[in-house]
Specification:
Elements lengths: L1 E3 L8 E3 L8 E8 L8 H11 L5 H9 L6 E5 L8 E8 L2 H15 L1
């Protein structure tokens, strides 16, 4: 395993080589919020917009771009510590998958 940093993205990217695998399991994550955060209700609504059949992740990444069979994401909001925002799926084209996730999230802004 090794980490590669990108000038255009905060954080780190990790790659794990698994010979014989036909797809990459991709997990995009960043720190989230506490349950009592004032933004928690809005992020619950955003989870609904992103997920499920007809959700933006499914429509853009699976239906329009054909990058994965299943994709899901959302925020965890635990009461005692900040949760995580994650998006995950399996794909033969991980760089395109990550780019598509970024596109979907930018549309929400």
């Amino acid at each position: 395993m090794f980490a590669a940093s990108s000038a255009s993205a905060a954080g780190r990217t990790y790659f794990v080589n698994k010979p014989g695998e036909s797809e990459a399991a991709v997990l995009v994550a960043e720190p989230g919020i506490y349950l009592m955060d004032e933004d928690a209700p809005a992020l619950d609504v955003t989870n609904d917009i992103l997920n499920g059949f007809g959700g933006r992740l499914f429509d853009k990444i699976r239906s329009e771009r054909g990058l994965t069979y299943a994709v899901q994401g959302g925020w965890e909001t635990p009461p005692a510590y900040p949760g995580l925002f994650t998006v995950n799926g399996s794909t033969e084209r991980p760089a395109e998958f990550i780019s598509a996730v970024q596109d979907v999230l930018e549309e929400l802004l």
